[in-house]
Amino acid sequence: MENKVFKILVVHHKKDKVYKDDIYTPIHAGKSLSNLELDMIGDDTGYNISEKNPYYCELTALYWAWKNLKGVDYIGLCHYRRYFDFYDEVPSVYYVKNESIDKMDSFNYTLPETIKKRLIDGEVVVSAPKTMNKTVFKDYCKKHVKGDISLLRKTLVENSSESYVKAFDAVMTGNKYSPYNMFIMSWNDFDKYCSWLFDILFNLEKKLDLSSHSKYQQRVYGFMAERLLNVFLVANNKKLDKHSVVMFHENADYKRYSVIKQYFGLMIKRIQFIFNKNTSDYRKII
Length: 286
Known about the structure:
alpha/beta, DUF4422, DUF4422 domain-containing protein
């Protein structure tokens, strides 16, 4: 284990608190489009898709790592205010834990030896699942553009094996998924994931017209990847090590989110999942 190299990208896009050590590596996503100097590596060197950041979000940092990082055995991704809670330091009844930004300096970011061992044994670290009272498909359609997810499935059928299509259907008709594009996995799994993911998204990009999408909805490829990570893990039958995500907020945001969101997170988990109706709605796109 001593000779294994672990890296976790911390994706930034604006000035904020920065945590960095031998494992955590801050990276400026969308650097080619930014006038900011954040005193960290950018996603605009070497082989890169930095200019696609308005549409691909943190995936431009992911692509940069895939094409340019060398000598890494295990690779992960988190966000400048979203980190894995490896020690369950923040009590939660929800998949995400809201905390004041004042606590960032004292938070324990250390990747435990026990988790390193699980990674070496082939497990993949992901965020704790977001459980809903609707299918992943209906949740996507409610938040984003329904036609996009339908076109994504068609692209999968055309460019992936049947096992990935079946995994996609299983995820979409289920009622939970691990969000935020956060993970830690072996470089071999990462290489396989990125080869598959970007092949799908680049093919989809040729077909998808974003001219009528709002600026927010143009971030479509980042939104899709949150679901596609789950599809990849299901298709490859990966054993998962799930951890809650701590989200650090400014004090005003923290007061607004912490109690209310935690409460409703618990309520959502208690709502009966109406499986048959949601599944039939999804089947209409197939």
